[in-house]
Amino acid sequence: MEFKNLLFQAEAGIATLTFNRPKALNALNAELLGELAQALEAVAGDEDIRVLILTGAGDKSFVAGADITELAKCHALQAKLFATRGQHAIQKLQCLSIPVIAAVNGFALGGGSEIALACDFIYASENAKFGLPEITLGIIPGFGGTQRLPRLIGMNMAKEMIFTGKMLSAAEAKELGMVNKVVAPDALMTEVMATAKSIAQKGKVSLRAAKQVINAGMGVDLKTGCSMEVDAFALCMASPDAKEGTTAFLEKRKAVFKASLTED
Ligand code: CO8
């Protein structure tokens, strides 16, 4: 896939999408958001892709937010369209059935933090900075930050970040539970790739079921969530991967998960 503002690469079931506007610290313009939605559509339709990684080009920034040059020219209705387009792409990202890892290599500000928050988890380089600085521009987060951040780190910490617009270091973000792992900048992609490879070896059916149940369960009460888990568990048992996984254990060998999503 070829894009103007994104790089796409896929190998051995692991796809990497790189935000590629390094001169503007990979800020999100309307064109990039359209390309992101297109790329995610293509990833969703490719059964060979088992894990997606998002990262930023260059060593300074993941994504420094919405493109302020474009934002400054928007009137209210255009801003609504831009925010809707961004939320549409980010919703697509969150609902992708495969695991998505954000490899945050520098600034993840505004829309950049919001994209990372919609991924399944975040690994960050030691120089990463997270923040929702929209308040300093006289606006508020518009790509889901007021909703996803409090759900992840708690309402009061999220309010402080959003009301002050202050940036957090990678270590602070890890302490708050926003980031799973912090590593040296030159080790970031190696670490992310190692985790992606480990995930890619697992069964497609069970990975999808786990993600779907976790995501859906966050929006319902515990009893309903556990009941969804029972159904998804039963569905996994119907897949050849469950047979392979349990048989491999009993035969003391490594399981090789081959179930396709399209087979009978
Ligand atoms: N938009 C456009 N250009 C940007 C952006 C951005 N968000 N961030 C950086 N750039 C550009 C700079 O203008 C500069 O360009 P040039 O070289 O042509 O002057 C280049 O990138 C390098 O940036 P700096 O020289 O500023 O680099 P520094 O290392 O000094 O500073 C910072 C780095 C701290 C990241 C700084 O650039 C900065 O504060 N950027 C803005 C961060 C920000 O406020 N982000 C939030 C944007 S708003 C948002 O994301 C809302 C999302 C929801 C929108 C809803 C739609 C309506």
Question: How would you sum up this structure, described in words?
Answer:
It is a single chain. The chain has 264 residues and is of the alpha/beta class. The protein has two domains: 6-200, 2-enoyl-CoA Hydratase, Chain A, domain 1; 204-250, Lyase 2-enoyl-coa Hydratase, Chain  A, domain 2. Helix content is 48%, strand content 16%. The strands form two sheets. The chain has a six-stranded mixed β-sheet, with helices on both faces. A four-stranded mixed β-sheet has the order 4-6-8-9. Strand 1 (6-11) and strand 2 (14-19) form a beta hairpin. Helix 4 (111-118) crosses helix 5 (145-153) and helix 9 (204-217) runs antiparallel to helix 10 (222-237). The model has no long low-confidence stretch (mean pLDDT 96). Octanoyl-coenzyme A binds next to helix 2, helix 3 and strand 6.
Q: TL;DR of this structure?
A:
By secondary structure, the protein is an alpha/beta fold. It folds into 2 domains: 195 residues, 2-enoyl-CoA Hydratase, Chain A, domain 1 (Alpha-Beta Complex); 47 residues, Orthogonal Bundle (Lyase 2-enoyl-coa Hydratase, Chain  A, domain 2), CATH 1.10.12.10.
